[in-house]
Design brief:
The chain has 689 residues and is mostly beta strands. It has one domain: TonB-dependent receptor, beta-barrel domain (Maltoporin, Chain A, Beta Barrel), CATH 2.40.170.20. It is built from three helices and 39 strands. The strands form six sheets. The protein has a 22-stranded antiparallel beta barrel. Strands 3-8-9-6-7 form a five-stranded mixed β-sheet. A hairpin with a 2-residue loop joins strand 33 and strand 34. The radius of gyration is 25 Å and the shape is globular.
Length: 689
């Protein structure tokens, strides 16, 4: 396992030596008590009580008048999530794995819309330029449902997904783990943190991952090297500076085969196309990416009233993407077979080699003030982003392929063409006030002004101006119930142009939401019910004539209801339950109208030996259609987990899609279908020292 050896060499990890007899080993605490929880800290159990994603201030979830789900590290580990979108399998308002097994990105839908992804409250620009964020390096995954442009400037109508990275901790905690799984998955990872000096002024953390793995698609690998060091300096109780860096290199292949309707959701005389079918060319196909991030998180408290914060990140990334896919579009929509036996399809090749640089900074001043009977948490800030991309592409007709009995060895010849350079800058100013009055009433109001400039070589510069706002009213009762109503808007400038160099228009949206939250003070439990009505214009949707392009549709309206329960119902039992109803008019996004999930974990002892746990989950998606495509059938999936904690050791077995169901996650109007993940099995062992 060369990747594992590289990781061990990188960290300089030496084998652990046994303690001499009679000398007990003292292990550091690995859980944080509820009283010490902050908006970015580790969480004990499945229920977080605080977050900064919805307000940019450390705010109790029970005082936040908008639906938000916090997925803590314990849930991520228990459910064996392999990537970011897997963490949202049991999250309200979310449709994860929207395009099935895909090595290129985390495709999820929040309230029927693709969310904008953030890392530590700074945007991650999406295109085929960015490696998928490694989930082992994250402390939390937070899903804010509904528009968030007033604070972030760039957020879809559906919401945002904010990833909270692991940060240096004051107590020494170290772990090394190994994962073995089907599809020849072999992984080693490490997470080391603690103080560098006795006075605690300097803290460190190093997170690293090395993985060698195949996938359920033949010839498509999923290999990764990741290293993320961070360093915190605390010269006083008032000042904290955390320096962050990360490097990630992926060597992957195309798991998306863009298979025709015929042979997947529709009948083909040769039967179903195998889920392992590779429609590209071995030795030619690649999705290789590399990314380097460097930045910081800074906070200084001037006094008990005023606090200044700045988050900064600079990113450089590159990709080498080469693939072939069936020609299921246009005249061959849904049935690409060119022979009487209906086995062989024409293919197109697509090659892209982009390079991207982004610079992001968000700075704000927070004040806590008391005026008469009111308590104010005021925040004023400015954020700036700069995005630059150069690209080379090639596309054309490739050699045909028999999808039932493939014979490979026909890689295309091609010549790369330089694409127009793309640049985008955005500058935003925002102000927000969280007002608490008469003990239980909470009113939130915010306003933002944005200026975004987009430039594509050969075209005139385009400037967009926008003002977005949000309001919220909540009554936080003493018994834990908190009804609320809120209004929010979104403005999302889109860098660059479509496949035909037509410049994108900004997406805009607005939403009304009403709901109720229940978070009792004596039990680790959270219940949220929300109903919403959101409107959006200029949404990007798939081009029915070109799989490498998107088009912007007109206006759409989405209405829905979300129910979420998570918590510790007894000392031994944790539960997560969700129900989601989504109605989109017109149906521009292929999303099930009904989704539901249930996960439970039970801790127990055997022969007076504690540390055992079992978990089980069920996920349901109703049938749905995309335009004139055949119906994507409903599906019910089952997951399970068994684990054992014994002092410094933890062993776990995770199985997802236990029944090994073969199913389509979506069949698109343009003519292609995508398979969902087959059964995945992972056996893991972790040593903490």
């Amino acid at each position: 396992m060369p990747a594992a050896a590289a990781l061990a060499a990188c960290l300089g990890v030496a084998p652990a030596h046994a303690q001499p007899a009679g000398q007990p080993t003292t292990l550091p605490a690995v859980q944080v008590t509820g009283t010490s929880e902050t908006a970015t800290s580790p969480v004990d159990g499945y229920v977080a009580t605080r977050s900064a994603t919805a307000t940019k201030t450390d705010t109790p979830l029970s005082e936040t008048p908008q639906a938000i789900t916090v997925i803590p590290r314990e849930q991520i580990v228990d459910q064996g999530a392999q990537n970011v979108q897997d963490t949202m399998n049991y999250a309200a308002g979310v449709r994860p794995n929207a395009y099935g097994v895909d090595n290129r990105a985390d495709y999820v839908r929040v309230r029927g819309v693709e969310p904008v992804q953030y890392l530590d409250s700074l945007r991650q620009f999406f295109s085929f330029n960015n490696p998928r964020t490694e989930i082992y390096g994250m402390e939390r995954v937070e899903v804010l449902r509904g528009p968030a442009s007033m604070l972030y400037g760039q957020g879809s109508t559906g919401g945002i997904v904010n990833l909270v990275s692991k940060r240096p901790l004051p107590e020494a905690q170290r772990e090394i783990g190994v994962v073995l799984g089907n599809y020849n998955r072999r992984e080693i990872h490490a997470d080391l943190t603690g103080p560098l000096t006795e006075d605690g002024q300097w803290l460190y953390r190093v997170v690293a991952v090395a993985r060698d793995s195949d996938t359920q698609v033949q010839y498509a690998q999923d290999d990764r090297l990741m290293l993320a060091p961070s360093l915190t300096w605390q010269p006083s109780a008032a000042t904290t500076l955390t320096l962050q860096a990360s490097w990630q290199k992926d060597r992957a292949g195309t798991t998306q085969s863009f298979l025709p309707w015929s042979g997947t959701v529709q009948h083909n005389p040769n039967g179903r196309i195998p889920t392992r079918r590779f429609a590209s060319e071995p030795g030619f196909d690649a999705y290789d990416t590399e990314q380097f991030n460097v930045g910081w998180l800074f906070e200084h408290k001037f006094n008990d009233t005023w606090t200044f914060r700045q988050n900064f990140r600079n990113t450089v990334s590159s990709v080498d993407y080469k693939s072939l896919y069936p020609n299921v579009y246009g005249d061959r929509r849904g049935d690409s077979f060119i022979d009487p036996e209906q086995t062989t399809t024409d293919r197109y090749f697509y090659i892209e080699k982009p390079r991207m640089r982004t610079l992001l900074a968000d700075q704000n001043l927070e004040g806590k003030l008391n005026w008469g009977r009111t308590e104010h948490t005021v925040i004023v800030g400015m954020d700036y982003s700069r995005y630059r991309e150069t690209d080379q592409t090639a596309t054309g007709l490739g050699a045909p392929l028999n999808l039932y009995h493939p014979v490979y060895g026909n890689a295309p010849e091609y010549e790369l063409t330089d694409s127009p350079k793309q640049r985008q800058t955005q500058l935003g100013f925002y102000a927000q006030d969280q007002i608490k009055f008469d003990k239980n009433w909470i009113f939130l109001a915010g306003l933002r002004r944005d200026r975004a400039e987009s430039t594509t070589d050969g075209q005139d510069k385009e400037t967009d101006l926008a003002t977005t706002k949000r309001f919220g009213l909540m009554y936080a009762a003493d018994n834990g119930w908190s009804p609320y109503v809120s209004y929010s808007e979104s403005f999302t400038p889109i860098a660059g142009a479509d496949f035909y160099n037509q410049r994108w228009k900004p997406m805009r949206g607005k939403q009304w939401e009403a709901g109720i939250k229940y978070m009792p003070t004596d039990v680790a439990m959270e219940f949220t019910a929300a109903a919403y009505d959101l409107r959006e214009s200029n949404r990007q949707t798939n081009d029915p004539e070109n799989p490498n392009n998107q088009i912007q549709a007109g206006k759409t309206r989405t209405r829905g209801v979300e129910l979420e329960l998570r918590g510790r119902v007894t000392k031994q039992v944790d539960v997560i339950a969700n129900y989601i109803y989504t109605d989109i008019d017109p149906q521009l996004e292929p999303v099930p109208k009904h989704m539901a999930s249930l996960w439970g974990k039970y801790r127990f002892a055997i022969a007076n030996q504690p540390g055992f746990a079992v978990g089980a989950g069920v996920r349901y998606l109703s049938a749905f259609t995309d335009g004139g495509a055949p119906e994507t059938p409903s599906v019910t999936l089952f997951d399970a987990m068994v684990s054992y904690d014994n002092g410094p050791w933890r062993y776990a077995l995770n199985v997802n899609n236990i029944a090994d169901r073969t199913y389509e996650v979506v069949c698109l109007d343009r003519g292609d279908c995508f398979y969902g993940a087959r059964r995945t099995v992972m056996l893991s062992g972790t040593y903490r020292f």
